[in-house]
Amino acid sequence: MPLDTIAVKLEIKNRGVRKELEDVIASVEGFRVMQRSNDTAHADLLIFEIGSDLEKEFQVIHSLQNLETVGEIFLTSPHSDPALLVQAIRTGAKEFFSQPINREEVKHAVERFQERRGKSKRHVPARMGRVIDIIGAKGGVGTTTIAVNLALSLTKAESFQSVVLMDMNLLFGEIPLFLDIEPTYHWSEIAKNISRLDATFLMSILSKHPSGLYLLPSASQLDGHTVATPEIIERLLHVMQTVFDFIVIDGGQNLDDIALKIFEMSNTVLLISVLSLPCLANVNRFLKSLYALGYPLEKSEVVINRYLKNPEISLKDAEGSINKKIFKAIPNDYRTTMSAINKGKPLFEVAPKKPVTKGILELADTLTRKEGKTVVS
Ligand SMILES: Nc1ncnc2c1ncn2[C@@H]1O[C@H](COP(=O)(O)OP(=O)(O)OP(=O)(O)O)[C@@H](O)[C@H]1O
Ligand SMILES: [Mg+2]
């Protein structure tokens, strides 16, 4: 099969309609229908069936378009009342097929798409989002504060950055409290449905914060379904990488086989510590263990949180004890961080001028600079 075939994704519940669309697309040269088992790749064209939960479905379509996850979107529905058509046009869908499907109509629409594509010669490069894993050297060192505010800061990059924040404290995660949102779905929805996970399904599960940050929270109560495995993580991160520029993970203090899979797939692991001997000893153990497992030392970066001027242990001493340069020190400010947490708001909204806020914005900037982009501070 030629490499430049146009990949068409069908998100169609009605089997008969799906089969008809498959047949029509197969009859036009240069197209292929993506299979569910390997469809984490970019779709040039998505044909989406709407009609069971319009509000949710249009939200998903909006997200997919805003994040440029798919090229064009065509819609089909068993209903064709004018209000639905108006909404379909507003989403920017290029075609609407009423049901039963008229094969000729679909064929012509697909050919027009091929023409448009040929003219614009627009090649959409496959997105390869960067995975930033954030791990605490100990409990309570500020891992969640940094994960949440770093993810929020990344959404402020000058050129649009799509960011998702994922909670790997799989039980009783606190991210929704930090962001004052009540997610409808969480991690177990992914774990239960991993075989049908793709960009469209992912976007129907994620919650969206007003800042534009997407969120995959953990379960808020025991439900027996939150089992993640390294295989699930691998697929989830692959799909997320096709949709988002940054995937920020609150990794808690885990170092099990799931955490190692995340580590393996991460571009950067931020190890959060404070300037205390027990914490730095943990950093040391962590770095040594990962090195012994064969992971390059450059992948991990050490971030000192709650940094006080004139500390008992200086940054230089800390660097000597862990044999590594400190990536960034975030100033100590209990009152401001606590106020942001209690209000469920980003630090840059609660206290934009405080050094702790600037510290996290700078951390985001350092991470994005590698990509040649700067974060607004
Ligand atoms: N830079 C900072 N300066 C002062 N206090 C901070 C700072 N960052 C976080 N904190 C405080 O530390 C406490 C713990 O923060 P957080 O919940 O983010 O830590 P954690 O490492 O995720 O904890 P856990 O192990 O419970 O998940 C909070 O009260 C928060 O206000
Ligand atoms: Mg935490």
What is this structure, in a nutshell?
The protein is of the alpha/beta class. It has helices at residues 15-27, 54-66, 82-90, 103-120, 143-154, 175-179, 187-192, 199-205, 230-243, 257-265, 277-292, 315-322, 334-343, 347-350, 355-369, and strands at 6-11, 31-33, 43-49, 70-77, 95-98, 130-136, 163-167, 207-208, 214-216, 246-250, 268-273, 300-307, 326-331.
Question: How is the secondary structure organized here?
Answer:
Elements: E1 6-11, H1 15-27, E2 31-33, E3 43-49, H2 54-66, E4 70-77, H3 82-90, E5 95-98, H4 103-120, E6 130-136, H5 143-154, E7 163-167, H6 175-179, H7 187-192, H8 199-205, E8 207-208, E9 214-216, H9 230-243, E10 246-250, H10 257-265, E11 268-273, H11 277-292, E12 300-307, H12 315-322, E13 326-331, H13 334-343, H14 347-350, H15 355-369
Parallel strand pairs: 1-2, 1-3, 3-4, 4-5, 6-10, 6-11, 7-9, 7-10, 11-12, 12-13
Antiparallel strand pairs: 8-9
Bound molecules: adenosine-5'-triphosphate and magnesium ion.
Adenosine-5'-triphosphate binds near residues 136, 141, 144, 332 and 341.
Short key terms for the protein model shown above:
15 helices; Rossmann fold; alpha/beta; binds magnesium ion; 13 strands; binds adenosine-5'-triphosphate; five-stranded parallel sheet; 42% helix; eight-stranded mixed sheet; 377 residues
Provide an overview of this structure.
By secondary structure, this protein is α/β, with parallel strands linked by helices. It folds into 2 domains: 6-120, 3-Layer(aba) Sandwich (Rossmann fold), CATH 3.40.50.2300; 130-369, P-loop containing nucleotide triphosphate hydrolases (Rossmann fold, 3-Layer(aba) Sandwich). It has 15 helices and 13 strands. The chain has helices spanning 15-27, 54-66, 82-90, 103-120, 143-154, 175-179, 187-192, 199-205, 230-243, 257-265, 277-292, 315-322, 334-343, 347-350, 355-369; strands at 6-11, 31-33, 43-49, 70-77, 95-98, 130-136, 163-167, 207-208, 214-216, 246-250, 268-273, 300-307, 326-331. Strands 8-9-7-10-6-11-12-13 form an 8-stranded mixed sheet, with helices on both faces. A 5-stranded parallel sheet has the order 2-1-3-4-5, sandwiched between helices. The longest helix is centred in the N-terminal third of the chain and has 18 residues, at 103-120.
